[in-house]
């Protein structure tokens, strides 16, 4: 043993004798993580969260979350002498007078955008590969919680500078709160400390933005990651990969090196974006006053689809018993997102109810092999994209010489028509891909080489695919549809006939598949 | 008479009548246009107004009428003033190229002198807002950027966007960008309210306030991109596009690279 080893050993022993960490470390450091680029989205989220914590802390050192009026006397000439809130003035100071302040602001905002984008990408990967199935349903729900927290945290964050754009967003937020029947106006009064814009809102959302929500984030992210650790990561199917093992790199050294390096790359990309591209130039928007508004006022993209839903709602209002119910706000801003998020959270349970599958799953699905789920996902993406486009309808109108009314009518109609079409098209695409897989296994790969037979006939040479590939294309299971007899063994009608009928129908639709190649098929082929 | 009716159905009658009719029209036109040339006393005065009238008759009267009275497709120009003509023709909006949704800015068809002549002619027939003089337009001296910004956000930003980049109106109409518009034309637009724009009279915005707005617009035009590339100064839509394409795009590329097995 060299002296260095001796010293390190002594230090490790010192720690182990006091914390008893050796056993845990030994077990944990041998933990294996499977490798796939789509497994990195969660890491992007985690790293941008760290970036958000660091840059956010920097910003709090100078930010003054107060709605008290001040006269701006800073260095930005076009706003000199203008009355504004201390919050806005201090954001201007961070941008122009604090060293590195503007860069930090932009890092914070770009990181927030990357955070949300990575959450969405992560969510889509987990959904399309079926990683949410038992035993990971809770972790899926935690993911939905994180997504929702992210939406709120983002909204509060870009509302804090109290510029014209963010104030407009808050005005809409207050309108949405007021749209809750009966109690809406009260809640709005409590939130804003009086009629909009009130006096106490900024300090309140500041505390929520920098203390409560980050705390919640930390807690939920910790549980989220610990559950991944405890339940182990899922893996794509492949030779040697089963429901009982995990194939990949151990934490040390490869995985740690890659993950650690990836943190710096995420930080680097965020810093690069922040250095070259402006985001939320609040000095251009001007300070918020309720009397002003700018054309093309938009929320950040992750709220944009909600804004788009509100923009496409026709003007519907009812008055009853002295109360006004604004359906045009209530439905698109509260009811539809409520259904979307609740549906997302419960989806794992809904799917296992449909399939009747209560087993644990650690191997991922290839999206084409579960056409119904994949189609549902694409349908949802289509829904959100149409809403998102309508959220930016004024920008699209000016940039592409379109009429804002046409875009609105397009989205009003297509929000009902295109998602179902997307569903059908995706399902058929999935089945076609399954058929292609089947052909590939049965007939091998087309080589592009033509040969002439002695009989004069031309034929293309097919090469058999590798056993690994054949395994991947045939290893998935194709569960048959649920069978629920209408009567039990003694001929008594089962209760809940309607529910069972629905379940059977859904299950049938879910089980639609092109029969995969069986071992017997292959044997027959070999005989030919 | 009887002889004439005798030849009524002769086969040469139709061509002959046509020739006579053409001859009659040609002669009438020739006499009429000759009479216009022959009355120099009314038109030969080499004044600006006169030139303006010539340009108007050639380029504008088809739609706006020989006496500015307007038509089914064009408004009357009586009382619109020199400012309106200078704005519409000086920014190339008139003569119009495409009347579908909104008349858009393009390279002016007439040069400065011709525009001035047209303006003088239209103003000579009925009073209206005048073209501001250079002395009236000294926004550098008489305007205030900060005040102009406040006025802009109060009065203009709801259509022209917070940075004067323009924005969408209903049915395909739009508020155009204010970048690269001459101060004179901004002033005239405020005074005359072209197309969908309201008129900002001197009671709504005093001349000094108008100059402040112009000064702010000019400052916004010269505003350096303090935070880096702006992607059009149109708000978060382009930012969202960039984060998905560039931000997540690069990170996904890196993730693919990181998880590629060494060969």
Automatic annotation (TrEMBL), chain A:
BP-aspect Gene Ontology terms: respiratory electron transport chain
InterPro entries referenced in this protein's UniProt entry, alphabetically: Cyt_b/b6_N, Cytb/b6-like_sf, Di-haem_cyt_TM
Membrane-traversing stretches: 37-63, 110-128, 140-160, 172-196, 208-230, 251-279, 329-350, 370-389, 409-426
Location of the Cytochrome b/b6 N-terminal region profile domain: 11-237
GO molecular function: electron transfer activity; metal ion binding; oxidoreductase activity
Membrane topology: Multi-pass membrane protein
Entry's localization field: Cell membrane
CC terms in the record's Gene Ontology section: plasma membrane
Record PROSITE patterns: CYTB_NTER
Keywords from the named record: Cell membrane, Iron, Membrane, Metal-binding, Translocase, Transmembrane, Transmembrane helix, Transport
PANTHER family documented for this protein: CYTOCHROME B
Protein name: Unannotated protein
UniProtKB/TrEMBL annotation, chain B:
TM regions (residue ranges): 241-260
Enzyme Commission (EC) number: 7.1.1.8
GO annotation, cellular component aspect: plasma membrane
Keywords: Cell membrane, Heme, Iron, Membrane, Metal-binding, Repeat, Translocase, Transmembrane, Transmembrane helix, Transport
Main location group: membrane
All copies of domain Cytochrome c, residue ranges: 47-126, 143-221
InterPro entries found in the cross-reference section: bc1_cytC-su, Cyt_c-like_dom, Cyt_c-like_dom_sf, Cytochrome_c_Oxidase_Subunit
A GO MF label: quinol-cytochrome-c reductase activity
Catalytic reaction annotation: a quinol + 2 Fe(III)-[cytochrome c](out) = a quinone + 2 Fe(II)-[cytochrome c](out) + 2 H(+)(out)
Places the protein is found: Cell membrane
Membrane topology: Multi-pass membrane protein
UniProt keyword annotation of Repeat present: yes
Name assigned to this protein: Cytochrome bc1 complex cytochrome c subunit
Biological source species: freshwater metagenome
